[in-house]
Specification:
Order of helices and strands: HHEHHHEEEHHHHHHHHHHHHHH
Number of strands: 4
Low-confidence stretches: none
Largest sheet: 2 strands, antiparallel
Number of helices: 19
Distance between the termini: 49 Å
Structural class: mainly alpha
Mean pLDDT: 89
Shape: globular
Helix content: 40-55%
Radius of gyration: 21 Å
Strand order of the largest sheet: 1-4
């Protein structure tokens, strides 16, 4: 029984939490004074920032690694061979490669100059650019992102930089980083070891441990499934957040807002109950029972649980994405938009700190799991969320329109539940950004 969560080995192959983060971040930040009143910034290639601040970046990354080794539970130490060591003589391309290796990001990460256009804006005369210029993950049918290129030196609003970057970690930054992933980095390896959960053979699932955090399952769960504690969302928040602070302090404001958005993505993912709980719709006792049956040769109930949790995760994201995008395209405010903007509850949470992601964001999402799962079951057509023989993920392109058309029953209750969750999304995003901005104003450049 110690390998209980072989039961859920395939569950987190779907690693996205909220679909497209950017439209929601436009709404969450557009009336925040620190963003709306910020001066325009000039777009800057990553190589310029790396070249100008090479020594400071090296000190920052080393300090982050030392902090992570001391404070992050389950941290996988970065191999010393991956340290970012200043070298003024190397090429920009080599410096960029060294930077990605030191952060332990995918070597294929684009980090291009681009914006994701706010879907509420009128169609721009600027031509869109191909998805593959921004992302190594190819879009699924119905993808809502629309990208345009930025020119070096072009002036751009911080809101657009921030909101665009909030979606960016889903573009392949965390793919295939574990030793048992196909094509994982080698010579040296990244040091993350074997993928702690999910299917290591499914590329998109390999990013799950960087976008989920099962911190509040309890002692019994942790004893039976210790690998689920090995998640790296907190690491990414600290890495990107520290780089944002450094960039703001050293006159690289574009990368301050860009790195801040990258950090916020991982905070926002953990506001999603299906990313903060292994199975929000199932008790530990039920998970143990179906796993025992599977070990005795009857795996049907175990696989059914996997399918149901995955389906409900997909359906929640489909509803949320469609409602947000439809309202944006019609330039209409509804309960989701009002929830995203509502800053009246921001102060009810403690100030931003290194433990905020685990002790505030993930704890709240974990507690919201059972009610969220129940709202999906009641609010969606039964075949999508109660039939363990029906795999929505395998038929998403075909059945997405049918899902939208057939949604009946308690959809208002489901919309209200999603609005509550998006209220958390907005509040935690703003609190995290406030914390980073305060750090930048308080600290001296390294």
């Amino acid at each position: 029984m110690r390998h209980l969560f072989f039961l859920l080995a395939l569950l987190p192959t779907f690693a996205q939490a909220w679909g497209n983060h950017s439209p929601m971040c436009y709404r969450a930040f557009e009336r925040m004074p620190e963003v709306a009143g910020a001066a325009v910034v000039k777009a800057e290639p990553l190589g310029d920032f790396l070249r100008d601040q090479e020594a400071a970046i090296a000190r920052t990354l080393d300090a982050q690694e030392a902090w992570a080794r001391e404070h992050l539970k389950g941290h996988a130490p970065r191999p010393d061979a991956l340290r970012f060591v200043p070298d003024a003589k190397r090429s920009d391309a080599d410096r960029r490669t060294a930077f990605l290796r030191a952060l332990r990001l995918s070597p294929q990460s684009k980090l291009a100059l681009y914006l994701q256009v706010d879907p509420r804006d009128a169609e721009s005369a600027r031509p869109t650019i191909d998805f593959n210029e921004v992302s190594v993950v190819m879009p699924g049918k119905g993808a809502t992102q629309r990208f345009v290129a930025l020119r070096p030196g072009e002036e751009v609003a911080p809101l657009a930089v921030l909101a665009s970057a909030c979606d960016e970690p889903d573009y392949g930054h965390d793919l295939n980083l574990f030793d048992d992933n196909l094509g994982s980095p080698a010579n040296p390896r990244y040091g993350f070891g074997k993928q702690p959960f999910g299917n290591p053979a499914v590329a998109i699932g390999s990013q799950a441990p960087f976008h989920m955090g099962f911190f509040h399952q309890g002692a019994i769960f942790n004893t039976l499934a210790p690998s689920f504690a090995r998640t790296f969302a907190e690491l990414r928040v600290q890495q990107y957040g520290g780089l944002a602070v450094l960039a703001w302090q050293t006159g690289h404001a574009y990368w301050g807002w860009r790195f801040a958005g990258l950090a916020l993505h991982h905070v926002e993912d953990l506001t999603q109950p299906y990313h903060a709980s292994a199975a929000p719709g199932a008790t530990l006792g039920h998970m143990m029972w179906v796993n025992l049956k599977a070990q005795l040769g009857a795996p049907v109930d175990r696989q059914g649980l996997v399918v149901l949790q995955s389906n409900r995760h997909f359906v929640l994201e489909q509803f949320q994405t469609r409602w947000v995008m439809d309202a944006a395209r019609q330039r209409r405010d509804g309960p989701l938009e009002m929830a995203l903007r509502d800053a009246t509850h921001d102060a009810r949470y403690p100030p931003w700190s290194p433990i905020y992601v685990r002790d505030v964001v993930a704890a709240e999402a974990f507690a919201a799991g059972p009610a969220t799962d129940a709202a999906v079951v009641v609010g969606a057509p039964a075949k999508f969320v109660t039939d363990p023989n029906f795999d929505f993920a395998a038929n998403e392109a075909q059945l997405g329109p049918e899902l939208a058309r057939d949604m009946q029953g308690q959809r208002d209750a489901l919309r209200a539940r999603i609005a509550e969750l998006l209220g958390h999304f907005g509040a935690h995003s703003r609190n995290a950004l406030r914390g980073l901005l305060k750090q930048a104003n308080r600290q001296s450049p390294r």
